[in-house]
Amino acid sequence: MSIRAEHINYLYGEGTAFEQYALKDVSFEIEDGQFIGLIGHTGSGKSTLIQHLNGLLRASSGKIYYNGEDIDQEGYDKKALRSHVGLVFQYPEHQLFEVDVFSDVCFGPKNQGLSNEVTEQRAREALIQVGLDERLWTQSPFELSGGQKRRVAIAGVLAMQPEVLILDEPTAGLDPRGRDEILDEISALHEEKGMTIILVSHSMEDIARYADRILVMSHGEKLFDAPPKEVFRHYQELERIGLAAPQITYVVRSLKEKGIALEDDITTVEEAKTAILRLLRKADGRA
């Protein structure tokens, strides 16, 4: 599986006095099994970009290729593409519409032309994967909490067994426990099934913890495309576009200024804990 974007431009109000670039000359390639973090300030083009990857939006110019095929070529099956590249929107209620949760999750595989037996089996497996209590399966999705709705929306996409799962701010508005549960479930899909994940998030901590590569968008353009440690070394440039490094990065920098010999590339609390314990053991003569 691969997704390749070549010189993507997308304009709002094209040909009018209000013409404005939402995406400008964006190129990248995503290989099978990667966990991509997509970050940028509000209005940077993140949501516009991901809607190009499964054909919901068509570029004003440039090409998107899925497994080497131009998705905008005449006759290309975009319905099939959306089964392979699943998108979970920021607001899950935009994807929920059936009378009960189980029917909602069945919709995707049923629309793929699968039998009732296979459809229901996939729905059950997907709902179990996202950790939704079975007692909720017969309830209206609109009676659920925000976190539960997100689980249903994710399950609805997983039931189609996509190769790529794109999530737009899946933890927005959730409490820390709900956020960690959903992200751990997404991480498990990546590790256990080898699923390619594209995670859009404002949380630098989440991106540093889970992603193995980060795309940074700014005013419709790709600013960085690199592993997390490399991207967060440019924290001053990130700050200039309204972002930041993970909070622990600033804590570590402050400790280094006080003479504590920590590495420069610490980006997670777990890494900081390991490094500090190693220094303490060394100080005690146990290293």
Total domain units: 2
Question: CATH topology of the largest domain, what is it called?
Answer: Rossmann fold
Structural class by secondary-structure content: alpha/beta
Shape verdict: globular
Helix content: 40-55%
Q: What report would you give on this structure?
A:
By secondary structure, this protein is an alpha/beta fold. It has two domains: 2-234, P-loop containing nucleotide triphosphate hydrolases (Rossmann fold, 3-Layer(aba) Sandwich), CATH 3.40.50.300; 246-287, no CATH class. Helices cover 40% and strands 22% of the residues. The protein has helices spanning 46-53, 78-84, 101-111, 116-129, 146-158, 176-193, 204-210, 228-232, 235-240, 247-257, 269-283, and strands spanning 2-12, 20-31, 35-40, 61-66, 69-70, 85-88, 164-168, 196-200, 213-218, 221-226. The chain is globular and about 65 Å long.
